[in-house]
């Protein structure tokens, strides 16, 4: 039984933890400025991972080349991605709209995976990728105009989209086999470093209370450590274009969690959008993508 369930554990965990992250970002930004929140999140995650690494005597990378590649992947997938998403919401963009922009990630990753990783994406899978984005748009049901302030938020969301897209590709190509614990130590450390100068660009505000502690704990442990470890694990064991398609399910997870936990209603467009996303995921994952290995 476990052998049947095992392949679904990592994707399901990734979807649930990621799908709820935007809720905790919004909660945290109510009490602390965006870059301060990010800096505290990375420092907290760094300390936890460092302690775990020493307790379990995990092996750190032995060469500067390995450290460099892990750092670059971390700056893109962890640092710049979160800087983009946090600032987009801080500038007034709704978590739903930010989620929609980030949902373009599977299309971008699949295109460049063909160029740089020699992954072959079938026409059926491409149709599924486009269909999935349509489904996400229906789930989110966006109908409002963008204000000038929110336009800046859109630009930050695009930064998050591109950073995560190319970060995933870089991770697969150069450091797919990194140790998840010590690699996490390096990536949270370099992410904290690049956020540090950005603290001087904002009016720092901070209110210490229980909701802030909950938001910080979730984003540090469940997002920075849990989500990224699951993502890298799946990238290591599968095609990055296929793994990226899971981003289509994040808004679906958010909608379902809102319905089951918060008592929100599921509008007709949300229900249809969920069905479309599920059909799209079936098209994308129906056949194994063939990978042509280069000979050096």
From TrEMBL:
Coiled coil: none annotated. Its main location: membrane. It holds the Pfam family EamA. It is found in: Membrane. One of its GO terms (cellular component) is membrane. InterPro entries: AA-Vitamin_Transporters, EamA_dom, EmrE-like. The keyword Transmembrane helix applies. Keywords: Membrane, Transmembrane, Transmembrane helix. The chain crosses the membrane at residues 12-34, 40-56, 68-86, 92-113, 125-145, 151-170, 177-200, 212-233, 245-262, 268-284. The keyword Transmembrane applies. Belongs to the EamA transporter family. This is EamA family transporter. It comes from Halarcobacter ebronensis.
């Amino acid at each position: 039984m476990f052998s049947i369930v095992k392949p679904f554990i990592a994707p399901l965990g990734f979807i649930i933890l990621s799908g709820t992250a935007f809720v905790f970002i919004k909660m945290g930004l109510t009490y602390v400025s965006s870059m301060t929140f990010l800096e505290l999140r990375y420092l907290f995650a760094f300390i936890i991972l460092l302690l775990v690494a020493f307790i379990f005597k995990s092996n750190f990378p032995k060469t500067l080349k390995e450290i460099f590649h892990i750092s670059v992947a971390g700056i893109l997938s962890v640092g710049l991605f979160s800087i983009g998403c946090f600032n987009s919401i801080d500038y007034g963009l709704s978590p739903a709209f930010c989620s929609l922009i980030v949902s373009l990630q599977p299309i971008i990753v699949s295109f460049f995976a063909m160029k740089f990783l020699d992954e072959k994406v079938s026409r059926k899978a491409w149709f599924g990728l486009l269909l999935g984005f349509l489904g996400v748009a229906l789930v989110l049901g966006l109908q409002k105009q963008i204000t000038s302030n929110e336009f800046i938020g859109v630009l930050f969301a695009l930064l998050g989209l591109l950073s995560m897209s190319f970060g995933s590709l870089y991770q697969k190509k150069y450091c797919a086999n990194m140790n998840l614990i010590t690699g996490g130590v390096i990536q949270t450390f370099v992410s904290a470093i690049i956020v540090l100068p950005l603290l001087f660009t904002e009016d720092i505000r901070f209110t210490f209370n229980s909701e802030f502690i909950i938001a910080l704990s979730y984003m540090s442990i469940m997002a920075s450590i849990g989500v990224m470890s699951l993502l890298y694990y799946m990238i290591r064991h599968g095609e990055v274009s296929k793994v990226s398609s899971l981003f289509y399910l994040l808004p679906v997870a958010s909608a379902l969690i809102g319905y089951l936990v918060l008592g929100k209603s599921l509008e007709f467009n949300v229900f249809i959008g969920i069905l479309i996303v599920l059909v799209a995921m079936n098209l994308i994952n129906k056949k194994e993508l063939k990978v042509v290995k280069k000979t050096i």
